[in-house]
Amino acid sequence: MALPLIPHSEIEPNCCGCLCEIVEDTTYFLCNECGAIVSKEDVARVVVEMESTDATCPHCGRVNSIDGFSEVYAFVCRYCGRGVAPQPAIDRA
């Protein structure tokens, strides 16, 4: 399962990077901007507090749980891999 995008600014307000999971002998998170190492415990606290939403894929019908957003307009389905984009409005005037 894909992890949510975790902005480092949730832990360190002066950084604009995102945390990337590194799995070696131990698991930790590394900021792609400043290079800071963040513990799993700190990241877990942030993920629990993040907003999330669900979106149903129109192609396969499966529900995708998407963390870090309260609304989703476009996404790639985690199950079938197809892109889902908003449909353009039809002007019937």
Descriptive report:
The protein is 11% helix and 31% strand. The model has no long low-confidence stretch (mean pLDDT 84). By secondary structure, the protein is mostly beta strands. It folds into two domains: 1-50, no CATH class; 51-93, no CATH class. It starts with 5 loop residues before the first strand and ends in a 9-residue tail after the last strand. A hairpin with a 5-residue loop joins β3 and β4. It is elongated and about 55 Å long.
What does the secondary structure layout of this molecule look like, with pairings?
Elements: E1 6-7, E2 18-23, E3 27-31, E4 37-38, H1 40-49, E5 52-56, E6 63-67, E7 75-76, E8 83-84
Antiparallel strand pairs: 1-2, 2-3, 3-4, 5-6, 7-8
Number of strands: 8
Distance between the termini: 44 Å
Shape: elongated
**H/E element sequence:** EEEEHEEEE
**What is the residue-mean pLDDT, rounded to a whole number?**
84
Radius of gyration using CA atoms only: 17 Å
- How many domains? The number is 2
Strand order of the largest sheet: 1-2-3-4
| Beta-strand content bin | 25-35%
Q: Which secondary-structure class do the elements indicate?
A: mainly beta
The profile of the biggest β sheet is:
4 strands, antiparallel
Uncertain stretches: none
Relative helix content: 10-25%
SS summary, helix count: 1
Task: Produce a short descriptive summary.
With 93 residues, the protein is mainly β. It has one helix at residues 40-49, and strands spanning 6-7, 18-23, 27-31, 37-38, 52-56, 63-67, 75-76, 83-84.
Protein traits:
two-stranded antiparallel sheet; 4-stranded antiparallel sheet; 8 strands; elongated; mainly beta
